[in-house]
Amino acid sequence: LFPPSQGALAAAGIAMAVAERAAFRTLLRLCRSLDRRPAQLTTLLGRPPRRYDSRQGRPMLMEGSASPFLEDAVREMCGGSTEFSHPDGAAARAARRHYGRARAMALPYLGEATALRNRLAAAQAVAEEVGAGSALADAPPEGTLGSLPELECFPPGSTARASAGDFLITHPLSCISESVFDQAVLLLDGTEDGGVTGIVLNKPTGASLGQMLDRWQSPEDSLWVDELKRLDILDCRLFRGGPIIVGNSLKESLRWLHGRGEGVRGAREVAPGVWLGGDLEEVARRTRGDSAGIRFFLGFAGWATAQLAVELECGIWVRARAAGTDLRTCALCFSPEERAAAWRLAMHSARKPMFANFPRSPGSDKRLRGYIERLAQLDAEKSSPEAARSADAGLRMGMPGGRRGRQSAGRRRG
């Protein structure tokens, strides 16, 4: 056997360069098509470099990807999100950068181009199957936006810390198996002691405050419950504010938002014209039984500061903020719309129409869950057998890829 000649090596190198250039052009055509209809990239999923470990109370680095430059390209195509895509029309630019980096560093490109094209094609296929990217994605909102604030969005990789008054609006795919957070609109109401708390605004329980008080059995709250029953608030509807219930204490778990907090003892303004808590007797007197002026929430959501930071960089939430003097924030917090309709209006207010009109139905949800779970399992199998078993256990518990971010948010941290 004789070693290949210099001419043969040169010919092989030229052939590889031609093949890589052809693969790049094919990928670039797909990316340009997706940039023209970015809603089809909503289903693209990245591989986050870190997760929050609730048991250790800190972010943990994940096992490194075998193709880190490919994941960098996916992240750029996802609008800077490490997991759930926030597409901004940058797919073609990311593909060019990925190809240029491979050439500059003399790295093998053909396999990565094929893998990236397959990732994009899979995302496009499931998006088309559920109807994303069609005319529906550009449909106008069902409600009226004129009364809602124009929200300023923070990109997933923003270093600006979350603060009271920020809104978190769930990504269409990120909490699809978690009912309390799926298509949810949250208002953050506190950031202190290394943690962040917030209230889910758009999930009615179907019961009134009075009905809930009649059923509440905890003896430690009996005197306070009797006081509440004497106020003109019993017909107010009760909303599910989040998964955290503090022991058996209604006093610690019931929260109320209202727009009449000026000068009320204990009331705290958490957004322009929106007040949290305060002397309930005085608030009830000011609202005079008007249920539209006050809302009650049982439970709340909570995160460690680092946990929420990781979830934001993963793109689990759209984080947005109203202008400091925009009193239309009240209209978003007390909107007559509920559940998915309120979520869509909030997305439109945040100028995210492709998310607002992302198709959701029992059939499409089943298809999307299967897609997310399959990718998580494949990713885990590539990492290690242990990761695959962990992911499989997580899937059986209804958590894609074993992800526990919002589940740990549903427990009060000690």
From TrEMBL:
Note down the stretches annotated as region Disordered: 377-414
What GO CC annotations are associated with the protein?
Answer: cytosol
Q: Which domain of life is it from?
A: Eukaryota
Composition bias (Basic residues) maps to 403-414
Q: Name one Pfam family in it.
A: DUF179
* Name of the protein in its database record: YqgE/AlgH family protein
Q: Which organism is it from?
A: Alexandrium catenella
